């Protein structure tokens, strides 16, 4: 974690530098950048799935590459999960440490991003006040919803749980070839 963090911070700065050159109203360029990141991460995941964990580079130079890529992708598209997964696999951590390290790492990186976002104007006092005002409402509704559908097994509750389970499956499984194909077609459409 300590070997990766300084490079991730450098990646955050790279991501911020890229964002400085994109006008706020230029959604086409951001769509292209995010499309490239999604395709790159899908390819990354595809490669990771086929690699022997012993063959994944894990030295200091690899940490620098992973860190900069991780910081840049999280700053531009909040999508650094596959990069961190590959790095943590290369570290050959046991499952419990793997999960905990990833969680702590993203907690630290996301807290570091807050002042950067504030400097860039992506987080304002007005947005923070609104977020804090809405937080108890969102947390309360989410808690009660999850508690209710978790305790009941009727058709309606199974139906209401389905989108959350789909999202969980989407975020925890590697993309297959058809997903990569869709990402490539989406990027071609944007270009």
What does this structure look like?
- This protein is mostly helical.
- Helices cover 80% and strands 0% of the residues.
- The protein has eight helices and no strands.
- α1 packs across α3 and α6 crosses α7.
- The mean pLDDT is 80.
The fraction of residues in strands falls at under 5%
The largest pleated sheet is described as:
none
Give the helix proportion (percent range).
over 70%
N-to-C SSE series?
Answer: HHHHHHHH
- Which structural class do the helices and strands define? mainly alpha
Distance between the termini: 37 Å
Number of strand segments:
0
Instruction: Characterize the overall form.
Output: globular
The unreliable regions are none
Radius of gyration: 19 Å
Q: What do the pLDDT scores average to?
A: 80
Number of helices: 8
List the defining traits of the structure above:
0% strand; globular; single chain; mainly alpha
Summary of the model, kept short:
The protein is an all-alpha fold. The protein contains eight helices and no strands.
Write the layout of secondary structure elements.
Blueprint lengths: L4 H16 L6 H24 L9 H18 L3 H10 L4 H26 L4 H27 L3 H18 L4 H14 L1
Helix pairs in contact: 1-3, 1-5, 2-8, 3-4, 6-7
């Amino acid at each position: 974690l300590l070997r990766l963090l300084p490079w991730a911070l450098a990646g955050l700065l790279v991501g911020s530098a890229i964002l400085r050159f994109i006008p706020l109203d230029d959604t086409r360029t951001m769509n292209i950048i995010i499309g490239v990141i999604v395709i790159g991460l899908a390819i990354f995941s595809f490669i990771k799935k086929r690699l022997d964990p012993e063959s994944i580079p894990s030295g200091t130079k690899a940490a620098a590459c992973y860190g900069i890529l991780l910081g840049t992708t999280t700053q531009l598209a909040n999508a650094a999960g596959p990069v961190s997964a590959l790095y943590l696999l290369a570290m050959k951590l046991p499952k419990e440490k793997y999960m905990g390290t990833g969680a702590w790492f993203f907690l630290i990186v996301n807290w570091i991003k807050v002042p950067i976002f504030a400097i860039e104007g992506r987080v304002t006092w007005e947005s923070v006040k609104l977020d804090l005002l809405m937080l108890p409402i969102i947390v309360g509704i989410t808690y009660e919803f999850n508690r209710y559908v978790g305790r009941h097994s009727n058709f309606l509750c199974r139906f209401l749980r389905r989108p959350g389970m789909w999202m969980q499956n989407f975020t925890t499984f590697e993309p297959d070839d058809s997903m990569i194909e869709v990402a490539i077609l989406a990027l071609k459409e944007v270009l």
